[in-house]
Design brief:
By secondary structure, the protein is an alpha/beta fold. The protein has helices at 15-33, 46-52, 58-65, 89-99, 123-126, 166-182, 197-210, 223-232, 244-255, 302-314, 319-334, 352-365, and strands at 3-11, 36-41, 69-74, 104-110, 130-136, 148-152, 155-159, 186-191, 217-222, 239-242, 267-269, 281-283, 337-338, 348-349. The structure holds 3-isopropylmalic acid and manganese (II) ion.
């Protein structure tokens, strides 16, 4: 019997609800496939500021390091939105990513056939979109120095710095190539090389790494052009690799294709994902804490359930179990279960609990043993 240690950080807003549902599913995986999951709970974000005085305590960071993977709900709390404030829930997430060396953020964008009518796009424009964004997560303008704000005789000033080293670029671009190699062998690298120095270095390093991957076609796109193309012709994309902030923006944009942010999982890894090799990672749904709907049994748990599947696959090497979870989500959708964010005429409107229960029932029945 395999045994794993999972750090669970429910966080803020709808985080605890959706994580709770994913854990119920993990219990099914446990008894059905005979694995043991030891869960270690910790605080992050607004809830950690309240209880521990910091958005991420050393204790929680150490606890995460001692586990095989981290499952996180969401961080963000409007009580800390004051731009003058000195603590922010988001800092906890940034410190966790940095502290655990999670430089590779994988965000798959998959348009389910069942939801093809649920978006603002024409179904034929988005049908069978299936791509993955590889976002650099521990560098760029999020972390570059100097980063500060000060008073001058002519008023206030603030600066952020977009900085990248050759090593930071090459390790993330390699992740892009490795993933592209196992998919359609088409890698789009997104930058702003017509303006930014860091992007010119990015492009050059990407070209150099490309020599090691002659089987993959590398294409460069400027971020503004990519922002257009991703909604004009989403099927054009297979694997996209880009720096931290471009990836943040492009993935929110691309999420619209999938019908709802409530459908999108993500994995943040500390190394190149490889078949049969465990990679430490943090797993979180792409959606945020959605404080306005917290505690109302409205939130869509699918993003977190699909996130759990990514955790099973990349950090625990439980490929069959991951596939079974994903198939169960697909089945629940095809049987017409819908939370309000993906509701359509004639289908069954359900809450967080009911959607999650539907997925669990499919997983129980599913005989992929
Ligand atoms: C995300 C979020 C975070 C980010 C915030 C909450 C710091 O928007 O995971 O995409 O910008 O990375
Ligand atoms: Mn974001």
């Amino acid at each position: 019997m395999a045994s794993f240690k999972i750090a669970v950080l429910p966080g803020d807003g709808i985080g605890p609800e959706v994580v709770n549902e994913a854990i119920k599913l993990l219990e099914i995986v446990s008894h059905k496939y005979g694995h043991e999951f030891a869960l270690k709970y910790g605080l992050i974000g607004g809830s950690a500021i309240e209880e521990e005085g910091a958005a991420l305590s050393d204790f929680t960071l150490k606890m995460c390091r001692s586990c095989d993977a981290v499952l996180l709900g969401a961080v963000g709390d409007p009580r800390y939105d004051d731009p003058q404030g000195d603590v922010r829930p988001e800092d906890g997430l940034l410190a966790l990513r940095k502290g655990l060396g999670l430089f590779a953020n994988l965000r798959p964008i998959k348009v389910y056939e069942e939801l093809v009518n649920n978006t603002r796009f024409k179904p034929e424009a988005i049908r069978s979109t299936d791509c993955i964004f590889v976002r650099e997560l521990t560098g760029g303008v999020y972390f570059g120095r100097p980063k500060r704000r000060w008073e001058t005789s002519r008023g206030r000033r603030a600066v952020d710095s977009m900085a990248y080293t050759e090593q930071e670029i090459s390790r993330i671009v390699k992740v892009g190539f490795e993933i592209a190699r196992k998919r359609k062998k088409h890698l789009v690298s997104v930058d702003k090389a017509n303006v930014l120095m860091s992007s010119r270095l990015w492009r050059q390093v990407a070209e150099e790494i490309a020599m090691e991957y002659p089987d993959v076609k590398l294409e460069h796109q400027l971020v503004d052009a990519c922002a257009m193309k991703i909604i004009q012709e989403p099927r054009y994309f297979d694997v996209v690799v880009t720096e931290n902030m471009f990836g943040d923006i492009l993935t929110d944009e691309a999420s619209v294709l999938a019908g709802s942010l409530g459908m999108l999982p993500s994995a943040s890894l500390s190394g190149v994902p490889e078949e049969g090799v465990v990679t430490f990672g943090l797993y979180e749904p792409v959606h945020g804490s959605a404080p306005t709907i917290a505690g109302e049994n409205i939130a869509n748990p699918i993003a977190t359930i699909l996130t759990l599947a990514m955790m099973l696959r990349y950090s625990l090497c439980l490929h069959r179990e991951a596939a079974a979870v994903e198939a169960s989500v697909q089945e629940a959708l095809s049987q017409g279960y819908r939370t309000s964010d993906i509701m359509d005429d004639g289908l069954s409107l359900v809450g967080t609990n009911e959607m999650s229960r539907a997925v669990r029932e499919k997983l129980e029945k599913n005989d992929t043993r």
